[in-house]
Amino acid sequence: xxxxxxxxxxxxxxxxxxxxxxxxxxxxxxxxxxxxxxxxxxxxxxxxxxxxxxxxxxxxxxxxxxxxxxxxxxxxxxxxxxxxxxxxxxxxxxxxxxxxxxxxxxxxxxxxxxxxxxxxxxxxxxxxxxxxxxxxxxxxxxxxxxxxxxxxxxxxxxxxxxxxxxxxxxxxxxxxxxxxxxxxxxxxxxxxxxxxxxxxxxxxxxxxxxxxxxxxxxxxxxxxxxxxxxxxxxxxxxxxxxxxxxxxxxxxxxxxxxxxxxxxxxxxxxxxxxxxxxxxxxxxxxxxxxxxxxxxxxxxxxxxxxxxxxxxxxxxxxxxxxxxxxxxxxxxxxxxxxxxxxxxxxxxxxxxxxxxxxxxxxxxxxxxxxxxxxxxxxxxxxxxxxxx
Length: 388
Hints:
Enolase-like, domain 1; 37% helix; disordered C terminus
């Protein structure tokens, strides 16, 4: 798996740059993350010499870092292209933005290969089902208590068996508020629904342990990122000092090897994020690592993109649908998975399970411009086709 020897020559790319796309309502986590706009820069389509196209959401880094290396007229296998770019980016570091760009390019190559075979991407990758298990998260810090409860109840009514919300009010100083919100949510959704909380790395070890004691009576499904995600010894200390609940980490990491260290330090729930990982191969390897060690696994990122991979997972290996952000990304698509009863059902189309809605983006004023990039005589050329 993933050692594909299909040869690829890239002929053209089109990059669609977006204006800021507003969220339905302002979103904030414990450390002030996000805000009023979706974390979205653009969309790219890359074509091979056979006219097949792979496409996905991306940053401008795809244009700046990847296109100059691939639009050269050279022919390589899928595996050779990946290895070539991987080592081109090594001096940026394997936690860099360039590694995120590489992960998106990997997804694009797989999209092209699936379309060549006239198969949905998930079936090309070996999935035996056409759906992915999903949990739903949201619950911004800035929501009023009743609004938080209303959202969690709505998620349950939509068929989700696991829900998640943000904690860490006032940069972690107002634990009483967060514990009270946990009590309210638990009473509202009942005992049969799993409720997880996400601290977004806001506490030190002492603070995380104190808050864990406060919410323990409400049986959290997991406590996500209670401390700084890179502080492996803090994670180890949490376990040694008896946090006595599942702790989850992974969204900040960009390669498989960091997850091996998480396992060694005692993390109970591994959760890589699709948009930050260096390859699809590593995502699947992390899932397998969790299974070998009897740990929980889930995968974050843009769920409509992630759904193709979620179809490879088992029912207890969920994707996160982070509604406050991901809903807006989904509104940019004209073809996407159907959300139903705690699952995402994938469309029966060739390649990746999504298609961008450029007409809507243009009508909404969200499409700022598009650029064409061509391969000709190993020289990169491009033409700007103005404001859209």
